[in-house]
Amino acid sequence: MDLDWQCVESQSGLSQVGEEKMIDPISALNGLQNAISMVKKASKVANDIGGLAPMIGKMFDAKSAATKAMLEAKREKRGSNMGAALQIEMALEQARAFEEELKMLFMQTGKIDVWNKIKERQAEMDRDDAKEMAALRAAEKKAKQKEEEMQEWAIIIGGIVFVLFLVFIGINELMSLCPKGGCGR
Q: How far is it, in rounded angstroms, from Cα 11 to Cα 5?
């Protein structure tokens, strides 16, 4: 089975691993819909589920890209909250429904054990991602605290230098006045 994924990749805005670029939410959702329809078409003519694995993987990549794009769009307040929520939920619902169809396909071919292993691996990877994100947030928080501490020290040192400068000027003025008219008289 040889299907062309270029239309899905270009519309979903998928990039190579490690690349960070802004994904257009509408294109990402279109990419997800195209990926789902291509996998559905391929599943009708495929001899075994193993041959669908690369397409299914791309479909889940498109789902992830679409979700990230919609959440990024929501953070940037592009469009209405209702519109963003509607698009996110409709795309995710379509993906959930397809995932159920995919589960049924595994069941019908007698490979539910493979499906269960896939779901276990997904859960494990999700836990690892959550740990990574928590560690990243902790590192960012620590860096921010360090930066704030450095700013506080800079303010304290600047204040001390300013006070010392004023004391120096005061002493210098006293020293210049004392020889002329005497100090304290």
A: 10
18 occurs within a structural domain: yes
**With a threshold of 0.70, does the pTM exceed it?**
no
Does any domain span residue 62?
Answer: yes
Confidence of residue 181 (pLDDT cuts 50, 70, 90): low
Q: What is the residue range of 30's domain? A: 6-110
Let me know how long the chain is: 185
E strand or H helix that includes residue 80:
none
Split into its structural domains, the chain has a count of 1
Residue 100 lies in a domain: yes
Per-residue pLDDT of 103-117, as tens digits, reads 888 888 788 888 898
Between CA 110 and CA 132, with CA 122 as vertex, the angle to 5 degrees is 170
Query: Tell me, what's the pLDDT at 134?
Result: 92
Contact 36, 2 (CB under 8 A): no
DSSP 76: T
